[in-house]
């Protein structure tokens, strides 16, 4: 909430603002799961009138209610800016750029909401898998802690200046994300043009679901112990990071999916 709306850190996980937004994230994730609604299989159902389409009424009702909530969060930031009382945030940046980017308040409110939703559950879920991996593999935790102690010490937090000197920590992060990515079936994509894949014709508008779990656990790529948690698989004998696994945009896993923004992220890291 601080990053997106510039709010002071919320002290209570039962804060109504957190509960409301998290309920939206839960509903959005349930709706996004492949096969959540019959109409995805029987696509002729999309031509039924509204009164015969409970899924459409549900989506439209949620959209109206959620729009009110996100427009309120967004307009609160706007009022703070007008009062000269705003901190840096995604919403503040959008307000600054709104005119040049030709965005309405509703657009900007939903962009802020999307960034919150995309970043919240993914980050907390992935961190929960990280904690489990550390509980199951204390030897990996100890080695990572030793590396941080020798490179960073205990008086400050790591920064990107330390990045190159932390190969084991980076291998460990890669391995958590490969071993237990939070989105095993990625996000469904729709083809914007006809395509061919391995001799199969895929017409425009086909929904494609990527089996990220299988790609991350392929023994032909990661070896016969692909199911095990082993950060060392990303390191060579001298402890340096191995060249990245091909076709993973330098990550050695596919848990971030296949969107365009990857190029932007990796550029900003360099
Ligand atoms: C461990 C953390 C994260 C994981 C595993 C993750 C994973 C993903 C995946 C699998 C997709 C779908 C990509 C595709 O189209 O194939 C995605 C999209 C997206 N993620 Fe993340 N994400 C994470 C963190 C974040 C954070 C922190 C933010 C924002 C602050 C964010 C913002 C987005 C946005 C805006 C999209 C949609 C982009 C688009 O449609 O082009 N994600 N993410």
Automatic annotation (TrEMBL):
Alphabetical list of Pfam families matching this protein: p450
Localization (cell): Membrane
Transmembrane among keywords: yes
Membrane topology label: Single-pass membrane protein
Cited SUPFAM superfamilies: Cytochrome P450
Pathway: Secondary metabolite biosynthesis
GO cellular component: membrane
Compositional bias of kind Basic and acidic residues: 227-239
Keyword Phosphoprotein: no
Positions of region (Disordered): 226-252
Gene Ontology terms for molecular function: heme binding; iron ion binding; monooxygenase activity; oxidoreductase activity, acting on paired donors, with incorporation or reduction of molecular oxygen
UniProtKB keywords: Glycoprotein, Heme, Iron, Membrane, Metal-binding, Monooxygenase, Oxidoreductase, Transmembrane, Transmembrane helix
Cited InterPro entries: Cyt_P450, Cyt_P450_E_grp-I, Cyt_P450_sf, Cytochrome_P450_fung
Cofactor(s) the protein requires to work: heme
Chief location: membrane
Annotated family: Belongs to the cytochrome P450 family.
Name assigned to this protein: Cytochrome P450
UniProt organism field: Hebeloma cylindrosporum
